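Below is how a single chain appears once it has passed through the pipeline. First comes the sequence as given, then the structure the pipeline wrote out for it. We keep one example in the README because the format questions we get most often are answered faster by looking than by reading.
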Amino acid sequence: MDKSNARAVVWAELQQVAKPDSRFHLDFNEYIPDFEGSTPATARLTQLDIYQKAQVLFITPDNCLEQLRAQTVRDGKIQIVSTYGIRRGLVELRPEDVPAGQEEMVVLLDLIEKAGRSISLAELRVRYKIDLIVTGASAVSHSGVRFGKGHGFFDLEWAFLWKIGVVDLSTPVVAFVHDCQLVDIDLTPSPYDTICDYIVTPTRVIHVEDAQKPAQGVLWDRLEPDMMDSIPPLPELKQMEKQGILKTVKQA
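Resulting structure:
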């Protein structure tokens, strides 16, 4: 079974547990939904040492991660969140930016850009080292191969974060999914697939041994034609590469 067929199978089951989006209803081609059981799944994730020790997290803008984003604020951690489709780049949200009691509202995608602030790759590179990455997924295999809606945004995010040196091959990546999104299929990852170190569901935590991650940055020749115009970090990264200010990344 390939990724496309796996998505179709999972999405049929996901219809039964997914929470509709206000704009996209249950169109999983457009968003990764929240789901029944995301509360216990969030509790499982926040109990892990990799979360407890993390000070700076990169969290994707998936609906299922709203509770995690709110808890990250309550726990006094900094989070970097990509905007929907990375169309407006990245947002830095610090705990002090959020009034007490407003955590769950502020982390909604319609509000997070008002409470937080836009952060460029250049500033991110100077100020932070990301300790933990958490992403939703359309589906993920037991071997940690995740796939999203088919646009490749997460693998692109990993690529530019790796290229600027704020993540390395030891940075843990967590796939946060419902149990029905965990598929028992054998997928051969492509060279640009970011394999997840952990899979967290409402009922369990799976640790993937020896998860491999790409160490090659953005594959410019594989980008869709409109991506350079619609995703601000890409032209910024291209300019940084041209200027030669990105040193070779030392991997752990």
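The longest helix spans residues 3-14.

See the next section for the split statistics.
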